[in-house]
Amino acid sequence: MVSPNASALESLAQWFPLVNPILVVPSFYITVKYLREVTPYFRKASVMADIGWELQSGFLGAENGFLNSDEDRSSPVMTNGPDTRSLPLLFCHLTRNYKCDEQYSLELHSPDRLHSLMIKCPSEADITGWYNALHSTLDRLMQSALQHANKMLGDVLDKATIHHIGWLKLKVDQGKEEWEPQFCAVTDHDMILFQEVPWTKEAWANPLVFYPLLATRIVNSTHKGSLGGSEPITMTMRCGTQEGVCTSVFRHDTQRDLATWVKVLVQGAHNAVQRQKEVACYCEWRGVEAKLVLHHEDGFTLLSTHDAAGGRGRVLWTQPFHKLVMSSDDGARLIWLRFDGDMEVELDLKTNPKPFVFILHTFLSAKVHQQSLS
């Protein structure tokens, strides 16, 4: 607090003469705050300015209006201010114990994986409540985006329908606990992975990797573990390729997420069999060039290719699926099939047999599932 004295006022009058005399009352107050007390205000404004992210443009951008439901229109619109920030949740990755392993915390990562927000609560009950609320909202947003994507991507995905989308964490090193988030989608034919959200048609046409559902199966999933627990909830997936068997391990945050992805992938593989009906591969049997056909109803059929003349070819032998006793391969080009009645067949596929083996197992699984429903 500062008070002027008379001499000071006289000095000011000499430097700034007045045309009309005024009465100066020598009593006023100036309130001064120490800088250390206002520093938090500047720091708070700076921190709030750094929070948040912008969504990219593209056909999946919120500006296209597919999120403009009656519920969205009735919700209050939050605006950014000096002490508030509004964050778009569309396509965000919600997780726990990925970058931040602090207790009672969760993580919200932006769709481009360049920004993140860590939220801490005083108790496990509080953080679980926040996680469940955000999870439900993100699920609703994902479903709206999924429906819109199916309207726009028919020409890109060869008229295939997308059945599920979301974030999974892929184990990048089988010997270490290193995980990398992947945006995943399951279509009629494949499970496809992206490093970030594919906002455009061009991005959807160039996935990071894809797994054909017919040649893919779930071989293991954990039944233990919980949200925020120390034991990871994982799903192991194997795919038969021309290079051999590809094994991928995915991590989930909850048992509910694990069950959803397993169901989507298993049902997707069975539905792919119903749509495909049959697959065929060229091979050699007893020195005869032939074609082996797998049919979802008829089982195995081996056809000769020499006298096909554009037709189906002469039937060399047939066997239904339920007669198959065992199958094995050498991992290089040979496969052995043993059927009930001591019939054993050796086929030279002249390529890696793993894709055929995995497709065979998918056809068998779909057949068993179909019989269980009847």
TrEMBL record:
GO terms for cellular component: cytoplasm; dystrophin-associated glycoprotein complex. Its main location: cytoplasm. It is a peripheral membrane protein. It holds the Pfam family PH_17. Keywords: Cytoplasm, Membrane, Repeat. Gene3D superfamilies: Pleckstrin-homology domain (PH domain)/Phosphotyrosine-binding domain (PTB). It is found in: Cytoplasm; Membrane. Residues 161-270 form the PH domain. InterPro entries: PH-like_dom_sf, PH_domain, PHsplit_syntrophin, Syntrophin, Syntrophin_4th. GO terms for molecular function: structural molecule activity. The keyword Membrane applies. This is Putative beta-1-syntrophin. It comes from Penaeus vannamei.
